[in-house]
Amino acid sequence: MGNKSLTKANYHHGDLRRALVLAAVKLIEEKGPNGITLRAVAAKAGVTKTAPYRHFSNKQAIINAAVEEGFSELKAQLTAAADQAVEPLARIKQQVIAYAKFAVQHPGHYQVMFLSEHPAETLAGNTPSAFQTLVDTMVDTIEEAQRAGFIRSEPPLEIALTVWSSVHGLSTLVVSKRLGQLDDSALAAMVTKVIDNLLYGISCS
Amino acid sequence: MGNKSLTKANYHHGDLRRALVLAAVKLIEEKGPNGITLRAVAAKAGVTKTAPYRHFSNKQAIINAAVEEGFSELKAQLTAAADQAVEPLARIKQQVIAYAKFAVQHPGHYQVMFLSEHPAETLAGNTPSAFQTLVDTMVDTIEEAQRAGFIRSEPPLEIALTVWSSVHGLSTLVVSKRLGQLDDSALAAMVTKVIDNLLYGISCS
DNA sequence: ACCTGAACACCGTTCAAGT
DNA sequence: ACCTGAACACCGTTCAAGT
Q: How far apart are CA B106 and CA B171, in angstroms?
């Protein structure tokens, strides 16, 4: 027989890893952070419970991969959102709104992303984590606005951290439903309010 | 025999509920959000696995009680911290630093507090949740500063939400170790930086 | 190389039973 | 009233075995 003909039995020749990560993400979004079990992930990917151990050392490793996937998706959303505006402050606002939207639309995934600690092990070596790539995206947008003279010239990482903390904190509060239910436009209004407070300060001039 | 003499066997006459909550808090702090099991909580409180069901309908109910306990402790810390200063802005800063410190010193508990959704069921009826009491404390401090003319006179809840989102977001990032390890003074410096950005704005005047 | 199936030590929850 | 002990359907992980 040829080189790569696959029967149904060994269908997941090199795809199982990816299939497991996607199944994990789906399960997290369907059943929440606690609804994800190794056995359910395996079943969703069409294999028995022990097959995942060929590709991941344990359950946590699958979750870590799902977290990476989340940061990667979030980064894509932020980039797309910022590209809908040209004015530097508008780009920041778009990005921040997109961030909060992601959290609200994928509450389970979002919670898992920040629940698990940042894995200590540096992957492949010099490959930056999806998390680091996300940070870079946010810092870049701030630096643009600084070069254009709209944002104070303090260390861009500090500014980015301030902006990010605000929207991340707000998102967490919304996702945990501690601010009550909010529809899309109410969320955007609240995010806008917070970012405006941030831009112009809350103290009396 | 008298009215309330207790043998060792029925020692937890009306205390078991409280003992279980405290055991749950301890376990969360020792083993993290995933390390808490109903059986371990019961064992720590000195009873068998099924005894908790007399006092809580299920595991989640115990966790909810531990969350309430957390908000209650956090509120106490914030009040104590604010009382160490008299100048309104200094009171806000002290409160915010105390908030971040609580998160860093009780990382497991803090994560659980915001992981679980706000329980829909209103307890005893009109008794405010520990969460609501915490919000009130933060709003009060903002209102003080507004009356003294230090903070813009926008809705105090919105201002409080902005401040809170910032420090909560920063705390979450620190607890999940995504900003790297920070000692006490580095944490205070970062919190101060963020709150200053917030007070005076990040935009060019 | 990749996957299976039995086995082990756990887990939350129920239910009948003890005092 | 309050707690126990057996039982059930789960769970993550291991290990020998199949192809």
A: 11
